[in-house]
Write a structure and sequence with these properties.
Layout (H helix, E strand, L loop, with lengths): L9 E4 L11 E5 L2 E4 L4 E5 L9 E4 L5 E9 L2 E10 L9 E5 L7 E4 L5 E8 L5 E8 L10 E2 L17 E4 L2 E8 L2 E6 L7 E3 L8 E8 L6 E7 L5 E8 L5 E3 L11 E2 L6 E6 L5 E5 L4 E5 L8 E6 L5 E6 L6 E5 L10 E4 L3 E10 L5 E9 L9 E7 L4 E10 L5 E12 L2 E2 L4 E4 L2 E4 L5 E7 L5 E7 L6 E6 L1
Parallel strand pairs: 3-28
Antiparallel strand pairs: 1-32, 2-3, 4-31, 5-6, 6-7, 7-8, 9-10, 10-11, 11-12, 13-14, 14-15, 15-16, 17-18, 18-19, 19-20, 21-22, 22-23, 23-24, 25-26, 26-27, 27-28, 29-30, 30-31, 32-33, 33-34, 33-37, 35-36, 35-38, 38-39
Length: 468
């Protein structure tokens, strides 16, 4: 635990907490915190380690999800859910009915239209790649349209589990099938397609894609039996880039996240199942951290605000899920949060943090005694963590008599200053300046231990007891 602050001492701490409406959190040990983040089951999903849900964020801040739906154990279409900026999930909407659709990709087109892309054999026995669109934020969806490019490499595209991303406004679609990975650039007849994987691939597992905001390059990730097995990254569009192996342990997939501000596409990995690092496509990695109680069996990453990247990892042996967020330069990380979604089987971690907080999506089977519930998609809304340095210095009269104290608080986020944060002691408050610094002056009536709070929208409340 942080040691007690005394006059003239400076101690840097990071305390996770919440506004009153969101409960409270308790520090476990230095640099690790356990906020009370509730996880809500929002859908039944396909119980595999493959992608179970596709997501995209619209301009109004809503996070849109599309996923396979079932009638009993039989696929019967696609469902859609929207999550509000405050983390509230809508009721499920039927986006497609009567089709045994593969797992879909989802993009938001430049005009704001949502397009879900999936492989399927239609009820009229046409095998292809199909698209359904929504122009009202996911409330209703148009009938399927054939969007396959038509090249010879796409002959088995109906069996593909698809992921999709935008490259300078153009959808880029992955079609992993028949042991290889085919990329289709654009939608509809004549859209070019090409093989991405190399000759050592005998079987390609599921894929992931993310876009480099600076260059528009879409990077793909996939698992291959090359390397027995091995995860790879490669630039997929607008041209084929260098092949890059992911170091460390092989997992079912390498989740990817691109920055919305600045360059880079990132994925997390672990060499020992405990310590997590963040890899950047094109070279280089940085240590993220570890949590003693949590193994890195399943890893994920998510895009955040201002070029930041969220990293999450977890296990289903009681260790829960660890999450943390980088600074703007993606060189340092906030204190780790320890979340508890109560997984009996953990399939996948994904999410979106483009508004700042993380909308965390957990594909899992819930740990419930005496029952075996179906696999579910669970949602949790995690805020970011502030750090702060506190110092108390005496105010002296001309006769060197102590007549009060100055409290200085420096607020940061993974090393980046946080301007505009509210610092409060009792009824006295002020806000941090552009450098993240705030000062409060008190007379001798403020003595002993005093509770100081720091609040900023999008962050857990930070609370520290300071001695005057």
């Amino acid at each position: 635990m942080p040691r007690k602050l005394i006059a003239i001492a400076v101690v840097t701490i990071a305390v996770a907490g919440t506004a009153a409406a969101q409960g409270s959190s308790v520090p476990r040990h230095a640099n690790v915190f356990t906020p009370k983040v509730p996880f809500t089951r929002i859908a039944t999903i396909n119980g595999t380690t493959a992608q179970a849900v596709a997501s995209t964020r619209s301009a109004d801040g809503n996070l849109h999800l599309v996923f396979q739906t079932f009638a009993g154990r039989t696929l019967n279409g696609l469902g859609a859910i929207s999550i509000s900026p405050t983390g509230k999930a809508s009721a499920q909407v039927t986006a497609l009915s009567g089709w045994q659709a593969g797992q879909p990709g989802l993009v938001r087109l430049p005009d704001g239209t949502l397009e879900a892309i999936f492989g399927a054999i239609s009820p009229s026995n046409v095998s292809s790649v199909w698209g359904i669109t929504s122009s009202d934020g996911g409330s209703s969806w148009a009938a399927p349209v054939n969007v396959k490019g038509g090249g010879p490499l796409e002959s088995l595209a109906y069996g593909s589990d698809i992921t999709a991303a935008l490259s300078n406004g153009t959808p880029v679609v992955t079609l992993p099938q028949a042991g290889q990975l085919v990329i289709q650039r654009g939608l509809g007849a004549g859209s070019p397609s090409y093989q991405l994987t190399n000759s050592t691939d005998g079987a390609v597992g599921e894929t992931e894609v993310a876009t480099d905001a600076s260059s528009g390059e879409v990077v793909a990730a996939w698992q291959s039996i090359a390397g027995d097995p091995k995860l790879y990254l490669q630039g997929a569009s607008p041209s084929v880039g260098a092949l890059q192996a992911v170091p460390g342990q092989s997992h079912n997939i390498e989740e990817l996240a691109g920055r919305d501000t600045g360059s880079g596409v990132f994925g997390a990995y672990t060499a020992d199942g405990r310590h997590v690092r963040l890899l950047r496509y094109g070279g280089g990695s940085i240590a993220v951290g570890s949590l003693k109680s949590t193994q890195a069996k399943v890893l994920g990453v998510a895009t955040s605000l201002d070029g930041r990247i969220w990293v999450m990892w977890g296990d289903d042996s009681g260790g829960g899920v660890a999450v943390t967020r980088s600074n703007k330069a993606v060189t340092k990380f906030e204190p780790i949060q320890h979340l508890k979604p109560n997984s009996a089987v953990l399939y996948r971690l994904s999410g979106d943090g483009r508004l700042g907080p993380l909308d965390l999506l957990v594909d899992q089977v819930l740990n419930v005694k005496n029952t075996i519930p179906p696999p579910g998609l669970y949602h949790g809304h995690a805020l970011a963590v502030l750090s702060a340095a506190f110092s108390v210095k005496p105010i002296k009269s001309k006769k060197l008599v102590v007549i009060g104290h100055t409290l200085t608080v420096t607020v940061s986020d993974a090393g980046d200053p946080v301007p505009g944060a509210k610092v409060s002691l009792g009824t006295t408050s002020t806000k941090t300046n552009a450098k993240g610094v705030a000062q409060l002056k008190f007379g001798n009536k403020v003595t002993g231990k005093q509770k100081v709070t720091v609040t900023q929208p999008g962050y857990w409340q930070l609370t520290k007891t300071v001695a005057f």
